[in-house]
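Incident log, structure service

09:12 report received: a user says their structure output differs between two submissions of the same chain.
09:20 pulled the input from the user's history:
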Amino acid sequence: VTFTNYRNGDKIFLSPETSIDAQKDIGADIILPFDELLPHNVTKERLMESLDRTHRWELRSLAHHQHR
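09:34 re-ran on a clean worker, output below:
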């Protein structure tokens, strides 16, 4: 995910790994991986694509968490 800093316009990239780093850096008690939230009326194919993407993000997040 890429965000734009509203103060100075800098681009901020947040990956599953940098998200885990940020959460650990602030001392989060509960750390959450990325997921994709879909509306209720998507096709089964779209739902499965989203599930696969979310699962890949979760695997990346867990691996990074365990090795940091």
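09:41 both user submissions now match this output. Likely a transient worker issue. Closing.
09:42 reviewer note: Residues 61 and 67 are 10 Å apart (CA to CA). The chain is about 50% helix and 10% strand.
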